[in-house]
Write a structure and sequence with these properties.
The protein is an all-alpha fold. The protein is built from 6 helices and no strands. The termini are far apart.
Length: 136
Amino acid sequence: MDKFWTFLTALHSGAGPIVMLLYPLYASVIAMESATKVDDEQWLAYWIIYSFLSLIELILQSLIEWIPIWYTVKLVFVAWLVLPQFQGAAFIYNRVVREQFKKHGVFRSSHHSKSTKPNILQSIFPHREGHEAHSH
């Protein structure tokens, strides 16, 4: 039975980096090189959600250590995000992330388009037409 648990632990440890990083990196490169933008949105949404999840883990690390099934739950959630048949990352982005940004007024208007620069970014990095920074 000990060999089984050792095998299961090794499988679990290997699955995390493959599911969370290796496959998404590969799929992101393939998406960037494809003609369609639909897959680009899925993978950009994945990296946004994965980054947010990683940030939450850093902030709540001492609490998460007390949840023995956290890594398994995270692995299943991330698998749902990345598997093409579910398109979980795009779903979460469209239903949660985008809605929260709209709710809190980050986008200029409720008719968000890809060319619209969010207000918060506009205030941090104002677009200066016709002006370029020159170093002297």
